[in-house]
Amino acid sequence: MPPSHHSSSHHSSSHHSSHSSSHHSSRSHSSHSSSHHSSYSSSRYSSSRSGSSYRPSTPISRTRTSQPYGWVGGNSGNPTRYLFMTHDYDYYPQGWTAPDGRSFAEGYYDENGQYYSNIVAAGATTMLHCAYCGNHMLYTWKDGAIPTCDKCGAQFQIDATDRAQPAGVSAPPTAQAKIIKTIICVFAVYFGISILSSLLSLLRMGWVASDSSGRQIAQMVQNSQESPDGRSNGDASGAKVGNTKNSIYVEEIGRTCYLDGSDWYDSATECWFWFNDEEAPAQWQYWFEGISSDYGEFGWMEYDMNEGAWYIEASEGNWVHLPDSYDISGLWHMTDEYTNAY
């Protein structure tokens, strides 16, 4: 997930002739809190937008379905649970047979009941089982390393790689949680409209005693129809990212994305993005899990349309070409990096 702030600079490079080169010079931002989603997470710029729905003190477990059953544990107790960026896993230290005769193997089961014999996660320690000599070994994985058995030297079979959640960051919300949140919002809006309609009916029927009361209620209705920045919800000029909308349709990827704190989020590509319009010229910036997250408190990315190349902020104000070692086949960007069409 991105850090709790935005990048304070752009990469230096030549751009379209219709835009100023100052677009890539260092610039200050106000702080902008956000928590972010390839399968890994990381950080963004230092700016001062307020807002922080991303700092729970304890990771949140995903809802589990289709899980193995009949585990008695013996001396092993309950299975060990790991909360990682892509999945949550329950680790069973030995195989067992359920009362109905179904057998389950030792190893890892994610929140959907998918089985893995061994998994490794950057920044975390997991238990590995050697298929050749039967050895069990606790292993702290460094991204890119090839785990080998410390007893027989054989290479472990690794079924999945993941990344530990940063301290104090919750797992991405499940689809079920998002649906519940949406339903609650819909009901809240419905009841709010019902109350306002009742008040207006009272006004029309003359049940409100004084003109001053009527004016107060009318003002309340008017205020409720305005967005936080003072624009009317029905005014197209108020359709600015982060103000009056909580979803956008992105033509480049052919799907709708929703606000995740102060940023838009595309779960399919685990990308957070925002239109940085705090300085001219404005530009889209992106946070891709598994790439941006490798850069600690930095890692925001920009696509240079003129060069046809990705840049990433490697350190404060230091923008570099994205290293060739990264797979960019799954990355996407807005067709015009300088235009906020939403």
Q: How would you characterize this protein structure?
A:
With 342 residues, this protein is α+β, with helices and mostly antiparallel strands. The protein folds into three domains: 21-54 and 239-321, no CATH class; 74-163, no CATH class; 175-238. The protein is 13% helix and 23% strand. The protein contains two helices and 18 strands. It has helices at 175-204, 211-224, and strands at residues 80-83, 88-92, 96-97, 103-104, 107-110, 115-116, 119-122, 125-129, 136-140, 160-163, 247-250, 255-260, 263-266, 271-276, 283-288, 301-304, 309-315, 318-321. The strands form six sheets. A five-stranded antiparallel beta sheet has the order 11-12-13-14-15, with no helix packed on it. It has a four-stranded antiparallel beta sheet with strand order 1-2-5-6, with no helix packed on it. A three-stranded antiparallel beta sheet has the order 16-17-18, with no helix packed on it. Helix 1 (175-204) runs antiparallel to helix 2. The longest helix is centred in the middle third of the chain and has 30 residues, at 175-204. It is flat and about 75 Å long. The chain starts with 79 loop residues before the first strand and ends in a 21-residue tail after the last strand.
